[in-house]
Design brief:
This protein is an alpha+beta fold. It has 7 helices and 15 strands.
C-alpha cells in the first residue's frame, strides 16, 4: 500500500524585525521543521471500529510531533501534551476522565490564562474542566467537539484553594451563573468572571468562546470601552457552569480546519435576540425539518492521519 504523506508545518516564524520581543506569537508556541505524516493506519487498527471506542481507549499521547488534524468535531491530535494535574495557578478537574490533554498551544494558553485569573481579587487561578483525550477524537460521552486538542472548558467556580485532592476533584461541582433559563446572570456572576473571559477573548490564539446568552449580554452592557473582543464571545446553550474556549489552528498546520470566523461586529445585538427568544419563545416552525439521527462515526470517517496515530492493536 502506497503511503500518502501530508506535510504539516509547525514553524511559527519570528517577525521581520527579528527578536522575541517582536514575535506576535506566544513564547511557548511550537517551533519545528516541517514533518511528514503518514495516513497509513497503525498496525492492526480496524477502520470500521467505532471511533469513540478507539480513541477513548488511548491512555497516553502519541509519539508523533504535535499536530491537529480535521475539524473540532471530527478530528484528532498527535503529540498531545498533558496539562499537569496541579500547577501554581490551576488544577485539572475530573482526573478519572483523562481529558486534560491538548495540543501544546492549548496547554500553554490554559497556563497563561490561569496566571491572569490569579491576579484577580477572589481568584487563586482556574479550575480546568475537559480539554481533549490523549489523542483527541470522539469522546465516549459528553462533547461533540474537543477532538483536535484545541478546546478547553474553564469552570465558573472561582478557586479558593489549589490543593484539592483527587477525590475532591471528582466530587466538587462548579456553580451556575444563570437565571431565568439563561436570559440573565445570577448573583454568582462577578466582574471578575467578565475579566477572565475578556482575557481569554483578547488572546490572539482564541477563535471563539462559548457562554450562555445572559452572560454575553451582561458583558456587552458592562463594557464601556472597546467592545471588539466581544466578537469572539458567542452565546450557546448550556455553558453556565463553565465557559468553553476554542483556539484557532496553530499557524502552519496543514490538515487542521478552522471554524469560519465569527460574524463582523461585537455580536451584542445577536446575543440580545437570544435573550429575547428565551423570555418570549417564538412559535415553533411547522416546516422545520426533523432532526436527523446521529450517525455513528467510525475511524474511517476521520482524517487519515487519525488512524495512523492510534496505538497498534
Amino acid at each position: 500500500m502506497v503511503k500518502r504523506l501530508v506535510i504539516t508545518l509547525f514553524a511559527l516564524t519570528l517577525g521581520a524585525c527579528g527578536g522575541a520581543e517582536n514575535d506576535p506569537a506566544p513564547s511557548a508556541s511550537v517551533r519545528a521543521q516541517p514533518i511528514a505524516f503518514s495516513e497509513t493506519p497503525a498496525e492492526g487498527v480496524d477502520l470500521n471500529q467505532v471511533a469513540k471506542f478507539a480513541f477513548g481507549a488511548e491512555k497516553r499521547g502519541s509519539s508523533q510531533p504535535p499536530a491537529a488534524f480535521g475539524s473540532y468535531a471530527k478530528g484528532c491530535v498527535s503529540g498531545a501534551e498533558q496539562l499537569a494535574e496541579t500547577g501554581p495557578t490551576w488544577q485539572a478537574m475530573r482526573l478519572s476522565r483523562n481529558r486534560n490533554w491538548g495540543h501544546p498551544e492549548l496547554v500553554d494558553f490554559v497556563q497563561d490564562l490561569s496566571r491572569k485569573a490569579a491576579a484577580l481579587p477572589g481568584w487563586e487561578g482556574i479550575y480546568v474542566g475537559d480539554m481533549s483525550q490523549p489523542r483527541g477524537g470522539p469522546m465516549l460521552s459528553g462533547h461533540a467537539s474537543h477532538q483536535m486538542g484545541l478546546d478547553a472548558d474553564i469552570w465558573m467556580l472561582p478557586p479558593k484553594r489549589l490543593n484539592l485532592s483527587v477525590a475532591e476533584r471528582e466530587s466538587i461541582s462548579s456553580i451556575s451563573m444563570r437565571r431565568s433559563a439563561g436570559a440573565y446572570t445570577n448573583s454568582n456572576w462577578t466582574p471578575q468572571h467578565m475579566e477572565v473571559i475578556k482575557a481569554a477573548a483578547k488572546d490572539p490564539r482564541t477563535a471563539r468562546i462559548f457562554v450562555f446568552p445572559g452572560a454575553k449580554v451582561a458583558m456587552c452592557n458592562a463594557e464601556k470601552g472597546n467592545k471588539s473582543w466581544l466578537r469572539k464571545v458567542r452565546p450557546w446553550w448550556g455553558h453556565h457552569y463553565h465557559f468553553h474556549v476554542r483556539l484557532s489552528c496553530p499557524a502552519g498546520l496543514a490538515g487542521c480546519i478552522n471554524q469560519d470566523p465569527p460574524p463582523a461586529g461585537d455580536g451584542c445585538a445577536d446575543a440580545q435576540q437570544w435573550v429575547n427568544n428565551i423570555l418570549n419563545p417564538p412559535p415553533p416552525n411547522p416546516n422545520a425539518p426533523k432532526p436527523k439521527p446521529k450517525r455513528t462515526i467510525r475511524v474511517a470517517d476521520l482524517p487519515g492521519q487519525c488512524a495512523a496515530i492510534l496505538s497498534p492493536r
